[in-house]
Write a structure and sequence with these properties.
This protein is mainly α. The protein folds into three domains: 180 residues, Up-down Bundle (Transcription Elongation Factor S-II, Chain A); 61 residues, no CATH class; 279 residues, no CATH class. It contains 28 helices and seven strands. The strands form three sheets. The chain has a three-stranded antiparallel sheet with strand order 1-3-2. A two-stranded parallel sheet has the order 4-7. Helix 3 crosses helix 6 and helix 22 runs antiparallel to helix 23. Pfam families: DNA_primase_lrg (PF04104), DNA_primase_lrg_N (PF26466). It comes from Anopheles christyi. Keywords: 4Fe-4S, DNA replication, DNA-binding, Iron, Iron-sulfur, Metal-binding, Primosome. GO terms for molecular function: 4 iron, 4 sulfur cluster binding; DNA binding; metal ion binding.
Length: 566
């Protein structure tokens, strides 16, 4: 490690990229020294979201295959990596190579790790999630190394571990076979074994899974990966603490503050801002909801049909979903008119007031922002109050209520228990994927990250088609928080960075729409003697012209800023 630091200092007189090559000469690396490079905001964001997509992928695969580093786990991860077009991480998981593509992948890996450290250092919960995912990524990369690659890695980081020589293995071969699970003499002869102090593998000693002699434990390559992994984990945990101390300084720049706070809840999948399928008639919504709507959308739809009323966030969530599946604005207006006027909203009030909000969601009124439909992460993290039906049922419903709803929708008690089991563990998107598999009687090859993705996969499943695999270019294009239709880059004269203004205001509010929707809820609920109070200082806030953009996804601050007592 000392040499690595010295190499870095010596390389500072060369270009930043050359310095990076000196501190990351291996596909598997310890993230020891923060890189010194110039990045645009756009590059910063892309690197962060690419890695975030990889970490979420690991989380989903591990939830289904808990035995990390097993062959089944590794195969499942690589299948998803290839499916999602994550070429950087596919390259890093092929062992240690020194071609140009590998060097480029190492650079992206190294930079993105340090970027996400700033996003995930701010709370214990975020740090715990980040460390767990990074350890899974480390095991994926380390597991691909050959014996020669492992030796190179140990030399690069000056780790005092050496595999046993053939003579040493021969002397204790019988003990290695007897004390190590599933070992044969042939495996002992062809695989490396490492000698480590017994205090580094107390779990193996306790479970009698290694040969112990004179305070030295002799371990297999798989167990050796855990030894190295512990060192890697400690370095990351210490690094997160250091980044936490630096965070206030970095967040002086509001652009980075907004960017870093939003990363964990950002959507990294396909753009569903505009429907790419044909027109979906509103007459088919009841039938579609039974199979092609995710549970969150089906819950909202059924509530609307039963009560002829949804509160403002539910209306917005459902309208944007309908827009993205192919419901035209004219049909959406007709659909909402028919439903709401059956409830408490007079036709005159709807035409004068509610219709504006619907046209606004379609980007035809006000600032003409083309809002994105809510992703799973947005649905999960959006607060829900009394009487509201938006949000994720897998998160918001208790286990017994969830099981009752699932069995009411036709799932067997066994399947309902299976789905609810994932939800109880906090794996809400895994639970949604399992729900999809039961409803469609098929195996789902990818994780659910968006209600509109669920709808698209359902339609493909019923048509007997296979979802097209996402290439690298598509992956890069989709790894955006808010896909832009006409985004423009502006030059920040103060910093010299090229800034894409559409990525910097994800938490800005379109107060015009909020005031309208809030006003309508207040007036409607007032008829039922329900009073709603909004924070006046928030409603009086004005947005500067620089804060407008062509497309926008509703962010957490949009909901936190208004305190609705509905």
């Amino acid at each position: 490690m000392i040499n690595s630091r010295q190499n870095y200092l010596n390389a500072k007189r060369f270009s930043a990229d050359l310095a990076l090559e000196h501190i990351i000469p291996h596909n598997v690396c310890f993230y020891l020294i923060p890189p010194i490079v110039d990045l645009t905001i756009d590059e910063f964001e892309k690197l962060a979201l690419e890695r975030l997509k990889m970490l979420r992928l690991l989380e989903q695969v591990t939830a289904k295959n808990p035995k990390v580093s097993s062959e089944a786990w590794r195969d499942a991860v690589l299948a998803e990596v290839n499916h999602e077009g994550l070429r950087t991480y596919a390259k890093l998981a092929r062992g240690n190579l020194n071609d140009d593509a590998s060097k480029a992948a190492r650079r992206r890996d190294y930079l993105s790790h340090f970027i996400l450290r700033f996003a995930y250092c701010r709370s214990e919960e975020l740090r715990r999630w980040f460390v767990a995912r990074e350890m899974e990524l480390f095991k994926l990369k380390f597991g691909a190394l050959s014996m020669r690659d492992v030796k190179d890695f140990l030399e690069v980081y000056e780790l005092d571990y050496k595999p046993l020589s053939d003579e040493e293995k021969l002397d204790i071969s019988e003990h290695l076979c007897a004390s190590t699970y599933n070992q044969t003499r042939l495996k002992v002869e062809t695989h490396d074994f490492y000698a480590v102090h017994f205090t580094e593998v107390l779990n193996l000693v306790r479970d009698r899974k290694c040969f112990l002699k004179g305070g030295v434990a002799y371990i297999t390559p798989d167990h050796f990966a855990h030894v190295i992994g512990k060192k890697h984990q400690q370095l990351i945990e210490d690094g997160l603490k250091g980044h936490l101390r630096l965070l206030p300084t970095l967040e002086i720049d509001e652009r980075f503050a907004m960017l870093l706070k939003s990363i964990h809840t950002s959507y990294t999948g396909k753009n569903y801002t505009v429907a790419k399928t044909g027109c979906v008639p509103i007459e088919s919504l009841d039938q579609l909801s039974k199979k092609s709507f995710s549970l969150c959308m089906r819950n909202v739809h059924d509530t609307l049909r039963a009560t002829h009323h949804l509160k403002h966030v539910g209306r917005m969530q459902y309208t944007l979903f309908l827009k993205a599946i192919g419901v035209t604005m004219e049909d959406a207006l007709r659909f909402w008119r028919e439903e709401l006027t059956r409830g408490k909203v007079p036709i005159e009030k709807f035409e004068k007031e509610y219709a504006y909000a619907i046209r606004h969601n379609y980007g035809k009124e006000g600032s003409r922002i083309n809002y994105s439909p809510f992703s799973c992460m947005k649905v999960i993290t959006t607060p829900i109050g009394p009487g509201e039906t938006h949000g994720c049922p897998f998160k918001n419903l208790d286990s017994s209520t969830l099981k009752m709803k699932l069995t009411g929708y036709g799932l067997s008690a066994i399947d309902a228990d299976d789905v609810a089991g994932f939800a109880a563990k906090g794996h809400y998107q895994i639970a949604c994927g399992k729900y999809f598999e039961v409803v469609h009687e098929t195996k789902l090859e990818e994780g659910i990250n968006h209600p509109n993705q669920y709808f698209e996969l359902s339609q493909l499943s019923m048509e007997g088609k296979e979802r097209p695999r996402q290439g690298h270019a598509a992956a890069n294009q989709s790894a955006r928080w808010n896909s832009q239709s006409n985004s423009q880059s502006t030059q920040d004269s103060g910093s010299g960075l090229v800034v894409d203004s559409s990525t910097l205001n994800g938490a800005d509010d379109d107060l015009e729409l909020w005031e309208i929707m809030e006003s309508k809820d207040k007036e409607t609920d007032a008829d039922a003697t329900i009073c709603e109070v909004a924070a006046p200082e928030i409603l009086s806030k004005k947005i500067s012209p620089k804060q407008t953009k062509q497309t926008q996804e509703w962010e957490d601050d949009d909901f936190d800023m208004l305190e609705f007592n509905e």
